[in-house]
Request: fold
Amino acid sequence: MTNQALEVTGLRKRYKGFALKDVTFSLPRGYVMGLVGPNGAGKTTIIKLIMNLVRREAGEIRVFGLDNRRDEAAVKARIGFVYDEPGFHQDVTLADTKRAIAPFYRRWNERLFQDLARRFELPLRHKVKTLSQGMLTKFALALALAHEADLLILDEPTSGLDPVFRRELLHGLSGLLQNEETSILFSTHITTDLERIADYVTVLRDGAVALTASRDELRERWAIVRGGDEALAALAPPLWRGVRRHAYGVDVLTSDVEAARRTCGTGAVIDRASLDDVVVLLDREVPHA
Ligand code: ATP
Reply:
C-alpha cells in the first residue's frame, strides 16, 4: 500500500499561450497541501487533470496508487471535489440536489450531512439560484465531506467567502474531517490561507512548479536575511532565492539558513520566512511597496 494520497509526475498540458511544464509533486496520506500561484498559473488545469476532465499530453497521476484514467471510477469514489463553479441545477432546491447526488456515493453519511448543513446554516429548502457564491461553496463542501472521501480536492474553496467564514473554514476543516487519514489538496492565490492549514505547499508559476516542500522544511531551512548591501556581501548568490529592495537595504530570501548564519556579516538580521515571504519573493526581485 502506498503512503501517498496523490502523486503527479511529469504532467504536461498545452493550451494556446499556456503550457503545464512537467508538473511533479506528491501529497502523503493524511496531510493538507496548498497549491498556490497567481491567476493563470495552472492550478485549475492541474485539478481538472486529476479529475480526468481534460486530456493531457504527458504525465502520470496516481491517487492512492491507482491510475486516475485506468481506474477512474475507483479513484473518483475516493475523491470529494469542490470546484469553483459547481454545476448545480439553478431551479432545484439544495435538499433535492443532495437527494439526487447522494446515491452515487458508496459511503454517504446522511447524519454528517445534516450536521454540516446546520453548522453552515444552509437553507436546504431554497433553490440553488437564490444562493450566494459563498453559500454554494459551503453546500458543495458539505456534500464532499458527507461522502467521507479519502482525498478532498478544493479548487479555490475560499474565493467567494467572506473573511470570517474563510478563517472558520480553514480552522475548522481538519475538525470537520471524520477521519484523520483524509488528505486535502486545495488551490488558492491567497497565501495567508496557507499559513493556517497547509502541511505542504506547491508553488506554481507559469505552468511550472517553482517549489514543492513541506511546511516543516520551509520553517527549518528558509529564512529572510535583512541588511544593507555590505552586511549581505558575504552571502553567496546561490543562497539568494529572491530579493526585496528597500531604500535602506535588502531582504534576501534564502533556502539555507545555516549557510546564511555562517557567512553573513554581523550587520545582517536573520528572521524566519513566512509562507507569504516564500511565495512572493521566490525567484523574484521585488521592489518594496
Ligand atoms: P485562476 O486562479 O485564475 O483560476 P489558475 O491558476 O487556476 O488561475 P488555469 O485556470 O489553470 O489557472 O489556467 C491556466 C491558463 O490556461 C490560463 O492562461 C487560461 O487562460 C488557460 N486555459 C485554461 N483552460 C483553457 C481552455 N479550455 N482553453 C484554452 N485556454 C485555457
